[in-house]
Amino acid sequence: NAGVTQTPKFRVLKTGQSMTLLCAQDMNHEYMYWYRQDPGMGLRLIHYSVGEGTTAKGEVPDGYNVSRLKKQNFLLGLESAAPSQTSVYFCASSSGQGNQPQHFGDGTRLSIL
Amino acid sequence: GENVEQHPSTLSVQEGDSAVIKCTYSDSASNYFPWYKQELGKRPQLIIDIRSNVGEKKDQRIAVTLNKTAKHFSLHITETQPEDSAVYFCAATLTGFQKLVFGTGTRLLVSP
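Above: the input entities. Below: the structure tokens describing the complete assembly.
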């Protein structure tokens, strides 16, 4: 049982390049989330999904897009990367039934030059 | 929307001492308050949570207390050990809302 798996673990991009971060969970969770973590700012919600085919904006959605075509996968896209998007990105999932814990992946460390 | 403030930002204690981290929240309707521990370079992991119908919850050396009137909750770690060194995050949410709002974290350093 892998839980929440994020790929890639590290990536360096040049300004203006695009890329997609993949999150996969094998716990049959309904809810999935993307956060970014910056020093001194904790975890900030980018986008989230409450089920297959649904997405919603979080606290800091600008510059990112997401898709949830399959229940187990949640993709985070950067169409035109900017240095301000240098961060550690965490995906999480929860069962969505009442207040259940969010389970996090290992994170993706992304640097934009 | 909900806002969570967390203090202190850093906390240094000697091994065996107790550590207390405090959080305040703004939305009186929030009713679920988890605490996460994040070791350096690792994922955040849930260590304890509390719901608003409970005032205190304990799990071995860690405990969480909730004061709904004052809208604050605290994490208490007793008999601290070097392996307790990590960043701790509090969070708050409303039932059914499913969007956690996190505090900015407390870096706990336990010195041998």
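Note for the figure: Chain A has no helices and eleven strands.
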